[in-house]
Amino acid sequence: MEVILAKHAGFCFGVKRATHLAFDAADKGGDTYTLGPIIHSPQVVQRLEEMGVKSVEDVAEIKNGSTVIIRSHGVAAEELEAAVRANLEIVDATCPFVKKAQEHVATLSKEGYDVVVVGDAVHPEVQGIVSYATGRVYVVSSGKDVERLPRMAKMGVVAQTTQSFEHLNEVVAACLARGGETRVYNTICDATAVRQEETKKLAGEVDCMIVIGGFNSANTKRLAQICRELLPRTHHIETAGQIDPAWFEGVQRVGVTAGASTPKWLIDEVTERISAIDKDKIG
Amino acid sequence: MEVILAKHAGFCFGVKRATHLAFDAADKGGDTYTLGPIIHSPQVVQRLEEMGVKSVEDVAEIKNGSTVIIRSHGVAAEELEAAVRANLEIVDATCPFVKKAQEHVATLSKEGYDVVVVGDAVHPEVQGIVSYATGRVYVVSSGKDVERLPRMAKMGVVAQTTQSFEHLNEVVAACLARGGETRVYNTICDATAVRQEETKKLAGEVDCMIVIGGFNSANTKRLAQICRELLPRTHHIETAGQIDPAWFEGVQRVGVTAGASTPKWLIDEVTERISAIDKDKIG
């Protein structure tokens, strides 16, 4: 059985950076917290917990003088301000692309634009981005949503970094159709599109796909969905322990991919486990 | 034979305004000029000439102390400045929608944007709009054109007022795909789209279409093209004198439409001429 690992499986730039910053802070010791999970990987969160890093939901839960790590998806402007006021040492692991989107929203608001954020309203990244608006701000997920918005003379558009380009295009076209001015910052990070394209190609060339990543990770769930449409024999797992040897009955080629928040060690465990199952079968 | 006149045939808001301003100036007397034809209607230009208004191509050709009328399509910033320097009395008949596009280009340039104008590079409106840029400016007519442009961090987009919305959308999508910031002013005037839609509908309901307007008028040529695709029996004319009675052999219903620069008197002459031909046939 051949195991083919997608070239862009796993950590993107922002997640790699956030994880490094978090483990560095953990190594230093002292009271260390993250505001919400550092990345959407329960395994990484657990490893940090084992090193003494606690994940809390509110600055109020953090002891004075502690270190707080801001997760890759970013936090709301008020939370960051609360951390500053509480005199906490701040390690800002916000993905630089998310940071850019937050800054653009702040600028657009300041310059009198009504802000339109293309994304998922309940995603923490979007909630963080939205919080930087000081004027009117709306989260939309389609052109149809734009049609329902009130009259706006100046529209400022940014996107959740993991949105598809087609999505952004559709929303911008709907804004343009309203006339007036539309100012767009393309804040999409193409790591997501690249990983999806590669995964799609791989799913077309194998008999079985294994998608590794947090069950709470939107981008991993999307990868699994893309694979499933092409190949019903697709399995979304978080860890190697969830693998069922029966999945590989009669399989010649297995494709493996992983979401942006899946660490290399989990991917390695999975590929090793699949190879071991293969040896067992032969042996 | 039934003659059906399109509801939006003829003068749009900007052309009506420009024509009124020009005839008012002509009525006042004195040396009066237009810089280029006031609108794309040779018949209107001729009528103004009969009233003593001369069309010239250059401010240098105008006597000091004269009145100069700026045509509906606008002129280049340098020409307007030259007219001011020459101490001419200026009647600015630039279409307010074109004026807006010129102002947006000036603002975008001033704020450090590279300007992208969606339109026809040789059209006087576009040449006027472009002249308001003080930085880099490019005229494009498709998304493909955008791909060939040099790297730009901040793109400012405006459109020739008569462009189609699909066209603007395509260019904006190509700009967004380059990343960075895209600031768009939708400067399209929907009079063109409304007239085209209505004409298309009418062409589908008649046996013969008559399109009236200057042979040098881009929007009239486009109307004739739209009709011809649906109805080969389409005739583009400038005046009633160009009508051939043979066109109406066996025709039950004639549709009549006219470009944005076609005056009402020319449309009336055409519908009267068609009715007269019909009476001759019966008589």
Structural class of chain A: alpha/beta
Biggest chain-to-chain interface with counts:
A-B, 16 and 16 residues
The helical percent of chain A reads 40-55%
CATH class of the largest domain in chain A: Alpha Beta
SSE arrangement of chain A, N to C: EHEHEEHEHEHEHEHEHEHEEH
Overall geometry of chain A comes to flat
Structure characteristics:
12 strands, homodimer, alpha/beta, 283 residues, Cobalt-precorrin-4 Transmethylase, domain 1, 42% helix, Rossmann fold, 3 domains, four-stranded parallel sheet, 20% strand
Give an overview of the whole structure.
The structure is a homodimer of 283-residue chains. Chain A has 283 residues and is α/β, with parallel strands linked by helices. Chain A folds into three domains: 2-10 and 191-282, 4-hydroxy-3-methylbut-2-enyl diphosphate reductase, catalytic domain (Cobalt-precorrin-4 Transmethylase, domain 1); 13-94, Rossmann fold (3-Layer(aba) Sandwich), CATH 3.40.50.11270; 97-184, 3-Layer(aba) Sandwich (Cobalt-precorrin-4 Transmethylase, domain 1), CATH 3.40.1010. Chain A has ten helices and twelve strands. Chain A has helices at 13-28, 42-50, 77-85, 96-110, 124-130, 143-147, 165-177, 191-203, 218-230, 264-282, and strands at residues 2-5, 32-35, 53-56, 67-70, 89-92, 114-118, 137-140, 154-159, 180-186, 208-212, 234-237, 253-258. The first copy, chain A, has a four-stranded parallel sheet, with helices on both faces. Chain A has a four-stranded parallel sheet with strand order 3-2-4-5, with helices on both faces. A four-stranded parallel sheet of chain A has the order 7-6-8-9, sandwiched between helices. In chain A, β6, α5 and β7 (137-140) form a beta-alpha-beta unit. Chain A is flat. The relative contact order of chain A is 0.15. The mean pLDDT of chain A is 94. At the A-B interface, α7 and β9 of A face α7 and β9 of B. Chains A, B: Belongs to the IspH family. Chains A, B: Its EC number is 1.17.7.4. Chains A, B: It is an enzyme of class 1 (oxidoreductase). Chains A, B: Isopentenyl diphosphate binds at residues 40, 73, 123, 217, 219, 261. Chains A, B: Pfam families: LYTB.
